[in-house]
């Protein structure tokens, strides 16, 4: 990080190993283009989550097979070229009860970024292909294969069927058992919201290659911000102010077991506000997520830890080499607005994180 003056910094472009790009079949062509740009623009590397369908006639078919990863990666990279995007976009595949070790080997050959486990019915896109039996024989064989191949496995850490405020804590038993069964498995416990999970990761990471990721909207939101405000609805749901404080301390503390993510998860306005289906996720594009995280680190006198959290820790954990690309942040207050659909249709617009709130910093384009 280079401090040019009090109001200008040059930083290494962060790495975001957890973002939702959706697909043209899911949000339409024009909005998809907006999302590809907004979710990737200022990153060095960004990972696309696999809970999306590419074909309108087959909503239950997510990114699971080598073919799907190839198709999705090509689609994302082609769209990105259209606006000169520079981030390297990598794609994850969903680990379901139908996944086999052979499928995982084929995915690795194709350069998949990792596998993702969604417990059944805990979040968007987990009502099909979600895991209902965490210790099923075939699933354990797949995890053994990931361990042998050194393939990262991301997990959404919530136990199905439990009370929302306890789901994450009750998932600890699965994490602990996976570590004991597969001591070399590169496990990523995603978007921590419960302070007890931070403690668990700190302890486990001393012995196992386990990491915890922290999404920057949880530096802001608590349960009170979600009640009655569907734009802030996300899974796991934000918890208590004490959890939010613990997440900020973990991120700014610089420990190598904690990494930056956005979990940027756009939903069309009409789906968030008018649909009967649950639409969990906060849209947190790079031009909001990065200045917001920077603001938090500055307020905590922790700017010296910013690149550790957003670049060093993710690179090391995922075995990535940073390209050296830099972005410039300037101190200039601005107000976050809704992102219009290019056709001007409000129902197809996206409401981002910090909507109608101010940010202290912005990225110089
Ligand atoms: Zn996610």
Automatic annotation (TrEMBL):
GO terms for MF: dihydroorotase activity
Protein name stated in the entry: Uncharacterized protein
Taxonomic path: Bacteria, Candidatus Tayloriibacteriota
Cellular component terms (Gene Ontology): cytoplasm
PANTHER family linked: DIHYDROOROTASE (PTHR43137)
Entries under SUPFAM superfamilies matching the protein: Metallo-dependent hydrolases
GO BP annotations listed: 'de novo' pyrimidine nucleobase biosynthetic process; 'de novo' UMP biosynthetic process
Species name: Candidatus Taylorbacteria bacterium RIFCSPLOWO2_01_FULL_45_15b
InterPro entries: DHOdimr (IPR004721), Metal_Hydrolase (IPR032466)
Domain of life: Bacteria
């Amino acid at each position: 990080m280079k401090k040019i003056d009090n109001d200008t910094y040059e930083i290494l472009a962060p790495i975001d190993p957890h973002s939702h790009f959706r697909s043209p079949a899911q949000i339409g062509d024009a909005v998809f283009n907006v999302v590809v740009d907004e979710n990737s623009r200022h990153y060095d590397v960004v990972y696309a989550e696999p809970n999306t369908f590419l074909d309108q006639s087959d909503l239950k078919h997510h990114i699971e097979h080598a073919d799907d990863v190839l198709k999705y990666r090509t689609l994302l990279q082609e769209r990105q070229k259209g606006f000169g995007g520079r981030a390297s976009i990598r794609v994850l595949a969903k680990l379901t009860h139908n996944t086999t070790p052979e499928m995982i080997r084929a995915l690795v050959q194709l350069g998949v970024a990792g596998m993702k486990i969604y417990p059944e019915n805990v979040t968007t896109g987990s009502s099909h292909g979600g895991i209902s039996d965490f210790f099923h024989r075939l699933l354990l064989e797949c995890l053994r294969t990931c361990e042998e191949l050194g393939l990262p496995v991301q997990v959404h850490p919530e136990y199905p069927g439990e009370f929302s405020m306890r789901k994450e804590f009750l998932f600890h038993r699965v994490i602990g058992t996976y570590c004991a069964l597969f001591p070399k498995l590169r496990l990523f416990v995603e978007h921590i919201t419960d302070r007890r999970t931070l403690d668990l990761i700190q302890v486990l990471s001393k012995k196992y290659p386990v990491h915890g990721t922290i999404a920057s909207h949880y530096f802001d939101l608590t349960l009170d911000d979600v009640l009655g405000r569907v734009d802030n609805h996300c899974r796991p749901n934000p918890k208590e102010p004490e959890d939010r404080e613990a997440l900020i301390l973990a991120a700014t503390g610089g420990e190598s077991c904690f990494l930056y993510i956005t979990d940027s998860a756009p939903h069309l306005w009409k789906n968030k506000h008018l649909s009967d289906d649950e639409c969990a996720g906060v849209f947190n594009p790079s031009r909001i997520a990065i200045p917001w995280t920077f603001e938090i680190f500055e307020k905590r006198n922790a700017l010296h830890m910013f690149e550790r959290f957003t670049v060093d820790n993710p690179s090391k954990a995922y075995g990535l080499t940073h390209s050296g690309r830099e972005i410039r942040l300037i101190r200039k207050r601005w107000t976050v607005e809704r992102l219009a659909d290019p056709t001007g249709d409000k129902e197809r617009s996206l409401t981002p994180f910090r909507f109608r709130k101010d940010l202290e910093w912005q990225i110089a384009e």
